[in-house]
TrEMBL record:
Name under which the protein is recorded: Putative LOC100874656 [Megachile rotundata]
Amino acid sequence: MDKLANLDNIVVVKMDD
């Protein structure tokens, strides 16, 4: 679950940027 959450966070951050 940690890895999935991290991937989601990275995607969100990349989109936000």
